[in-house]
Amino acid sequence: MVITEVLEKNARKYPNDTSLIEINPNSHDKAKLSWKDYELIQSTGAEKFKREITWAQFDETANRFANLLRIRGAKKGDKVAILLMNCLEWLPIYFAILKIGALAVPLNYRYTAEEIKYCLGKSDSSMLVFGPEFIGRIEEIYDRIPDVRTMFYVGAACPSFAESYDELINYCSADAPNIKLTEDDEAAIYFSSGTTGFPKAIIHQHRSLIHACRVEQNHHSQTKDDTFLCIPPLYHTGAKMHWFGSFLVGGKAVLLKAIRPEWILRTISEEHCTIVWLLVPWAQDILDAIERKEINLDDYELGQWRLMHIGAQPVPPSLIKRWKTVFPNHDYDTNYGLSESIGPGCVHLGVENINKVGAIGKAGYGWTVKICDENGEAVKKGDVGELWVKGPGVMTCYYNDKKSTDEVLKDGWLLTGDMAMEDKDGFIYLVDRKKDVIISGGENLYPVQIEDFLRRHNGIKDVAVIGLPDNRLGEIAAAIIEPKEGVKLSENEIELFCLDLPKYKRPRRIIFAQVPRNPTGKIEKPRLREIYCGESLVAHQNEMDIKE
Questions:
Q1: C-alpha dihedral over 109, 113, 114, 117, to 10 degrees?
Q2: Rounded-to-integer distance, Cα 86 and Cα 101, Å
Q3: CA-based radius of gyration for the chain
Q4: Of 433, 449, 482, which residue constitutes the final position of a domain?
Q5: Residues 224, 317 share a domain
Q6: Domain stop point among 433, 452, 481
Q7: 3-class secondary structure, 533
Q8: How many domains does the structure of the chain reveal?
Q9: What Å distances lie between residue 118 and 123, 269, 548, CA to CA?
């Protein structure tokens, strides 16, 4: 089965049922309005706050754009890039590309013009679909991307160098293109998050995508009656692959174009959302807003909300303890995955294992895992090694990059680069990224463990620990701490708090600053190293100059 068949099945079985809803608060001022006020705004013809489509419209729109792509010369195996913010058009465009046997190439909406150019070239994309937020960036490069022969613009006021998606699809056939596809056909190129360097182009087959649907539905038991709230960016595997579980059973999804706590809760309330996937900072923001009494839970209808799950980064146990105190009836789950393993689910905690909060879980549905030493041999339970995963969702390769592919694919196993350990009950705990381990005076320090400890402090909103060069120890642990709003912290206070840590694990430098995260919630440690390691290297060099 290929994933486009799921869309066609839903359109046949549930043609008039809502498939997708877009909620667009649009601005800070508008977010203060009531939903009735928004309905009034819509009735006057102003910018729409809420849009929705049925399953029949979803499939028809995908067919129309698929036929437009074919008219413009796209064929099986071509690459079509998508550069859009989350919107109602995003998923029909994605499935249109897949329907003709082309490869969808979602691009990070934070990319600069030069990064967009790099990824278009790296993926050999010959077409690009983009939205109004990116006109300026595309203008910078459109005459330097000759291999991109066609560009489609989604929105009003189409620029002269592109064609209007909105106008052209209305003239195209709504019939399915009927291109023969199999699970072995390549379906998409996803770019790695770039947390360890320039993004790599990851190839996935239809087999991977349909497996992601089955994994998610198996883990979270979505039914037709569930409504999934999608907030993270659709260009990333995480949000889309969690939605796949609802997609498989014809469940409704809501795309919320806002991350303010009151808008998350308002959308859950008004749209009767039952499943919500959050990133750690968003969950923290919701709890903090409740604690500051900026949000009164009695103002919302939340009884139908059954599952809150988190992924994309290590989850502090202290956060889940706080969450369960406020929302005791919620099932909680966490999933682990990588873009190379088609996103979440290759390791899965399970809602029944709330007593193991802090672990990422056990092998997910259809997956096999092991923890290995540097020679590829399985380590003993309790020992730290690299996590390896194997299953139908592993990428085929890094596109046109055999060297990088050979480094991470061994006999069907994907080497994740994450250091982990397994407890006596078989539950896996992430220790840290292999490349993030700090070696200080011969001791291995795992930043995630130090970060989890520091997050127990009531005044800390976020924290990142990185290694800084040190003449004596090689490296020292530095904690970049972002205090909660209105909280003043001192180095002395943090040092006293850290007395409960073993001495060798205590941060030797405390920095109060914002902790940068990418759109999928991962801490941007390369950026932090660029900022603070540079400073440390200068100080280190000055010290060496003095000694000389």
A1: 80
A2: 23
A3: 24
A4: 433
A5: yes
A6: 433
A7: helix
A8: 3
A9: 9, 42, 44
Residue type, position 384, single letter: V
Range scoring the smallest mean pLDDT among 170-184, 225-239, 304-318, 530-544: 530-544
Containing domain of residue 388, as a range? Answer: 369-433
Q: Give the phi and the psi of residue 106 in degrees, each rounded to 5.
A: -70, 135
Specify whether 489 is located in the same domain as 415: no
Determine contact, residues 51/77, Cβ cutoff 8 Å. no
196-234 tens-digit pLDDT: 456 899 999 999 999 999 999 999 999 999 999 999 889
Contacts with 230 (C-beta within 8 Å, 6 or more apart), sequence order = 86, 239, 242, 243, 253, 254, 255, 256, 277
Q: Are 214 and 320 found together in one domain?
A: yes
Shared-domain flag, residues 447 and 490: yes
- Which residue do the tokens 């000694």 mark? 547
Look up the CATH number of the domain holding residue 427. Answer: 2.30.38.10
Coil, strand or helix: which one is 96?
A: helix
90: Cα separation from own chain's centroid: 16
In a domain, 363, yes or no: no
Handedness of CA 426, 431, 435, 441 (dihedral sign): negative
**Residue 368: strand, helix, or coil:** strand
On the question of pLDDT at 173 being above 70, the answer is: yes
Q: Would you state the structure tokens that stand for residue 339, as one six-digit string?
A: 């873009």
Question: CB-hemisphere CA count at 13 Å for 42?
Answer: 14
Q: What is the mean pLDDT of residues 277-284?
A: 85
Closest CA to 523 of 281, 197, 321: 281
